[in-house]
Every structure is written in C-alpha cells, then in structure tokens.
Specification:
Transferase(Phosphotransferase), domain 1, binds magnesium ion, three-stranded antiparallel β-sheet, six-stranded antiparallel β-sheet, 378 residues, alpha+beta, binds adenosine-5'-diphosphate, Phosphorylase Kinase, domain 1
Amino acid sequence: MKTLKSKNKIVDVRYDIRRKIGSGGIATVYKARDRVLNKDVALKKIHDKYAENKNFIEMFKREAVNTARLEHENIVRVVNFIEEDESYYIVMDYVDGVDLDYLIKRCRVLDISIPPLVAFHIIGEVVKALDYAHKLKDKNTGRYLNIVHRDVSPGNIMLYYDGRVKLADFGIVQMGRKRVKNRKIAGKVSYMSPEQARGGSVDLRADLFCCGLILYELITGKKVYAGNSNMEKWEKAKKVEIDYELLQQRCKSRYLRAIIKRLLKENPAARYQSAVELFIDLKRYFMKYGGYEDIKKEYKNFLKLSLTKELSDAGKREGQNEIDKRFHEESTNINNPVKYKRKLAAKGGEKEEEESAVDAVLDASILIALILIFLILL
Ligand SMILES: Nc1ncnc2c1ncn2[C@@H]1O[C@H](COP(=O)(O)OP(=O)(O)O)[C@@H](O)[C@H]1O
Ligand SMILES: [Mg+2]
C-alpha cells in the first residue's frame, strides 16, 4: 500500500481528513472526504496504545472484515480497512446526524422527556439491524455466523438528521470488552448484560438485554446502573440491580413495562429469545399509532424539537433548502420546546394509556364474538 505522509492529513492517498468528530474507548473518529468517490466518510483511527499490540490489531482487522459483510439499512457500513505508518483506520459511511447519547444529553438540557413512541421507534430500528446480523449466514457454508454486537449502547446508535436510525460498530469493541476480565473496566459499564459483566460468554440475548437498558433510560431519563464509579456500576450490572419503581412512575403502560422487564431478565432463557420475537411485540404497540410513516413523522418532529440548533447548523452547512425539504411534511409548531411540552401534555402524549395494544386487540375480538353470538341467536 502506497504511503503518503499525513502532512496534509490525507490517509491512503484518498481520504482527506477534515475534522475530528470525537473519541471513544478504542479509537478517534474523523470526518474525511473520499477523494475518489467524492463523498464524506468517517475514519476511525485506532488509539496508538492498541496499535502497538499485534494480536489486538489482527483480531481487530478480522472484526472489521466481518463487519464489512453487513449490508442493512439500519447498519452503518464499513467500507475499508487501512494500515498506514503503523496506524490503523476503519473507513465507514459518514453519519450526518448525532448519536443517541447526544440526544439524551440534549433532552436533559432542554428538560424534555423522550416520548415512549420515539424511544420504542429508535429501538425498533436497532432491533431490525440486530435481527439481520444475528441471523446472517456464511454465504459459502450456509452456517450461522453467530454475530453478536456486544456493545449496543446509545453512543453506537446513530440518528441521521433525515430520520434514519443506524447501529454502528458491530463487534468492534469485542477486544476492548475483554479487558473487563482483567479488571480494567474501560467504556460503557452502564450498558452491560449480567453475563458480560461477569466475564462469561455472550450470545444474541445479551444484545437484547442492552436494548432493555437503553429503553429504560430513554423512558425514565435515568441510567439503570448509576453510581459514583465504574466499579460501583459494574457491581450493579453483575447483580442486575434495577429500580422498577421508577419505571412504574415514568411509564404508565403496563404493556411497555412488560417488554422492558422481559428484556432485562437476569436469566437469558427468560428474555426474548430473538430480535424478531421482540419486534413482534413492538409492532403490536406501534399498531396503535397507524403506519410506519406516521410513527417516523412523530420521531422526526421530536428530532426537530430537540435538535433545533444542530439542524440549523447542518442547514447552514448544506444549504437551508435541503433541510427544509427533509422536514417539509412536518408541522412547524414544535420549534419551541415549551410550547411543544404544553401540546404534549394537552394531548396526554407523555402519559401512556394504561390499556395495552394487546388489550385493545382482545377487546375488539370479544366485541366481534358477542356480535356473532347475537346474530346466531337471532
Ligand atoms: N460513522 C460515523 N459518522 C459520524 N460520526 C461517527 C461515526 N462513528 C462514530 N461517530 C462519532 O464519533 C464519536 C466517537 O465514536 P466511537 O469511537 O465509536 O465512540 P464510542 O466508543 O463512544 O462508540 C462519537 O461522537 C460518535 O457519535
Ligand atoms: Mg462507537
């Protein structure tokens, strides 16, 4: 591979680094311009301390290659892996948006809660990605690849400004996680399944547990495992210490609480056994709100409310017309968070009905049965 000194911050003769986006446990992410395809990409540069470890890099590379097989509308694509000057980069699609962690923090600052419909929609999109990845088979052998994400957390759930939701970093943190066994707890202790926290082996049900942790946080506004230190959170994660009273206070729908509780069962055998099983229950809830497009519209309205500044900055970067076009179909009266909060309260939007979607379906069936009996008797 031809090397070019990164004086002009050009990697692999092709990727022109524009700015640093952020830094995580394993790597620093940059926005870069792909000079061949003439589009933006995200370059993930592995921290130097990991780059020195040959075993780590080999495993990392293998993971990157595996991840590059994943092609799904809810997964951030990996498009390249580069070694240059003893530095290692993963090239990914650039996400024009923010991650869910950012949205959570933004909502905290604005003092608005995330409506259950929005929370479940986001997780619903993540579940579609998980379903695809968990079930992926090797094209040659036909065997399941047993792909597990291992780090389903708000920082890896990417929210595009145009309303798409994608999961990033499949399998990439696996090696970072292994360090937990050595008591070097790095990263996201708050988003660990008990089996992960105890250093045991994990399967797809660990990913579903993490969806439960995120849903709990989105709905209650509090992380499941809070504490002053990583050690404290880690202990709670190992014991699955969950405050269900808080969930009860913040989530009035028995049906939604039941979904979250089932996701957060300590024993993997008591949880949903597959992403699709969970998705079926989510769909029952979504049915109450009409079609997918209606729900997405609600979600985009909420993004517009909570990310007003970011959207307007993105608008300035791209030309306001583009942003206006994206949101043209949405109502315009939610620009003001206070007004929106009042509107939600008036609609009872923040209060979920006690009645579950399933209950509603059952009620309808009973009604139909009664009408039939009545007709027969006539
Ligand atoms: N493909 C991408 N496009 C745009 N931003 C990204 C992309 N991948 C990661 N980021 C952002 O870069 C920052 C660091 O990401 P990462 O190293 O994956 O951190 P973490 O360990 O928290 O997942 C985060 O703010 C994340 O939102
Ligand atoms: Mg990440």
